[in-house]
Amino acid sequence: MIHILLPLDLFRVSYDVAVGRPYSRLEQLLLRLICDDQGDEGRTFQELRKAFQVHDRLLIEALVTLLREGWVAMVQNDQEIRYVATAEGLLTTSSGRRPSSLRVQRRQENIVRELMEGQLARQSDLDLVTARDVRRKTNRGARSFALTERQHRKTLNGGETEWLLPRNAEEQQWIRRIDSNARMVSGRYYLPLRVDLDKATVLGLPVNWSHLTSLILEETEQEYQNQSLASGSAAQERFDKMIKEWQRERDRVRRSSVQAAELVTVPCVETALLAGDSRRLAERALADATTHALIVISQLDDHQVARVIEVAADLRSRGVGVDVLWSCANDEALRKRLVNALGATRAKGLKGKVLFNRTPTDALADFVLAATDKGPVAVMGTGLLSVAAQDKALSPAVLVRDVRGLSNLALLASGWWQGSPDDNAELAASRWRHLSERWVEEAALSGAAPCTEEAEASWNVPTPDVPSPQPVNENSVTATLLVGAEGPAARKRLIGSSAAALVSRRLRKPWDSVSLVGTAEEWVVGLDTPSVSALALLLRGRVAAELWTQARADSDPTRAASDWVPIPNEDVKRRA
Prior knowledge:
This protein is of the alpha+beta class. 32% of the residues lie in helices and 25% in strands. It has helices spanning 25-35, 45-52, 56-69, 87-95, 131-138, 213-223, 234-251, 275-287, 302-317, 332-343, 403-418, 425-445, 486-495, 542-552, 570-575, and strands at residues 2-19, 43-44, 72-77, 80-85, 103-114, 120-122, 129-130, 173-178, 183-184, 189-196, 201-203, 265-267, 270-274, 289-297, 321-326, 354-356, 367-372, 375-381, 394-400, 477-483, 503-506, 514-518, 522-527, 535-541, 565-566. Helix 1 (25-35) packs across helix 3.
């Protein structure tokens, strides 16, 4: 057994948690009735019962709510209790706003990012050591015992962390605002691991980082089986002693129970399997845009840029502002052509404005997001800018209206814009950060606070960030947002699963970097890349079954025999 260190970066994320809720329609009407024409004597319970004709329990609960908030007071007149509006209650009704008890708390959370593939976790879910600890105990630098750092990005998009930030659903807490860029904490941090090369096991990894096992075993085999660091060497013995002391100290500290971290999962209103349907789904969403629209493209090319110009012109003619965030293949000639073509979207004479990045972004995602009179709407997936000739290509997409998920999507986009070196990028970053905050607050104050369900208390940490498939209504569809390294991690989990069958496909151009991996129960759709700025989708429910059927349909005329390839999997081979 060899002890090694997994290198980490530590970030401090500042965010606002809002506490409270809007009041029910009954509570609003009750407050209004007490305020209106109450005179000096107020209203009796009997008068209120007669006016509302509801069960006494409901009326009492509503009165208790208003009394606790200080908007209604009780006065006794002879033997009768009357309810009168306070000055604050009168001010609330006269302002015309919906009563709410919103309070905001400023918080901070430490988030770590492992430096092999860039996955995130809460610091409170892990037990770390510092480079100073290792130096003091072993007289050697921590890098002597550390795995190789493969990720070198030193910034963290606030939108990547939303699912990790604690909030209490029972107390109606919700994330109101996250600072766009987290502050990196100075110092070097490590997660101690134990590697058994004989049994091919790695102990100490969080469950949702378990796919790192093969990488860790491979590097440990190569780098740590030498004379100075092999098990039993003087340096390794000092290091082992330090880790054992650290382990004993850690075991004496009982970890506090916190809400389990869960990636954002949203219900999907509509789904599409083929590129033509995905394109029409995106067009419908953008047709509802009234103020702003965002188009994010992972692999822009000459064909798609023509579609962008058409879509932007239509939006601008209706007075809608358009932001286009794109990336492309590493080709300078292509980049120049795309920038020149996008410049045509700035044609004068149209009401709306257009903004686009001139330097290809690190963001690797495909979606359109629109601000409408009915709230945000987005279409995520592939084939959103396809042309008619590609209508029958398999390119799944989903339409989403869930405010929590889309506010997080807008916050992610804001961080991506902020990372752009272009002069005008800050304007777009500010716009989508503001919309994200506005949407989530409006949803909360309208009675649909976007909270994460409170997990059962547990001393065992951490829990998987992508839960195993759960039974769902056969007609429902959900999409889990896989940010950064979570996409490749989900792919590896699927490939390593014991599914009876599993297929993979790399889509044809113009989405040749987009891949599909799936079973009859779940699919991962998005770019097959460990980029921390990538966004993939984990699709479950009806759409997974439909994708499975479409993938295996022999009657699909667009599918070449080599398009769909079984994933090598020992368990699958045994079942076969």
